[in-house]
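Researcher: We're teaching a course module on how sequence relates to structure. For the next exercise, students receive a sequence and then see the predicted structure as tokens, so they can try to spot secondary structure elements on their own. Here is the exercise chain.
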Amino acid sequence: MPIMLPQVMIRTVQFLEEIEPIRAQIRCAADKTAHELRKAMDEQPDGIELLRRMKFTKMGFQPLVDEKLNLVEQINQTWTCLVSLNALPFLFARHPDAGGFQLNLGAGAGTDILSIAPGIVAAETFAAVHPSNNAKLSNDMRKLARQCPDARARYVFFASPEYGHERQHRLRSLELGLEGIEVWSIEV
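Model: And here is the predicted structure for the students to work with:
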């Protein structure tokens, strides 16, 4: 059986007006998945069977590509994409010299947001119940420090139910090499 590599969707956004069409694609994939969930519920599976389908069958859709995938992965990709998109107005306002941004949307490797103009901005994004879950915040900060040490501005943006849109000074790390990375919560 061939190994399926994660889908990576690279998008370039040079103007704020380009954000809403991407959001619309994500919304469309979510609507298609809601339809699949309703069909699954019509079959009245027991709870374990429904959870099995969500985890292991392709009842969901890639947020930006018309391709099926499991629901759990769609949930993760959807919210990470939305955090990236919701960070863009902030980045455009703060870094008008960035020339726009390249978004690495999907489950593949790479920096989530990079300025088109080299060396201006690098950012990682994620969504979680709490930013400390699975050491995601710490891991993303280390990744930025390792992969983008020369970017003038480095950020980690996250969405979590307990946080609004603001800089998270208390969540920043004082570890050697991680200075200068700003942590921001983003509402989605």
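Model: If you want an answer key for the exercise: The radius of gyration is 18 Å. Strands lie at 8-13, 60-61, 68-69, 101-106, 113-115, 121-127, 153-159, 166-167, 181-185.
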